[in-house]
């Protein structure tokens, strides 16, 4: 699999499982993504899981569905807590497959 992408099991990203890979200069992480069922509008749509140094699968972040304030279109963001990593998900370059999402990093959130 190409790094910095997530491959969902279907185009219905909000309800699909997925696997992916995130690589930066400071970490390299294979991830598993599982949907979350919640009535809380602030809850993530997915749990992001990675492997501990001893190989155990541990929750390390989440994916949230957001809405663009200008256009009203939906999009997804990803966070990996331990690495203060934040990214948007978007259609992978040169792909027509909406189930393949590129991980598009952006800077860490500033402390409030």
From TrEMBL:
UniProt superkingdom: Bacteria
UniProt xrefs under InterPro entries: DUF736
A Pfam family it matches: DUF736
Protein name: DUF736 domain-containing protein
Source organism per UniProt: Planktotalea frisia
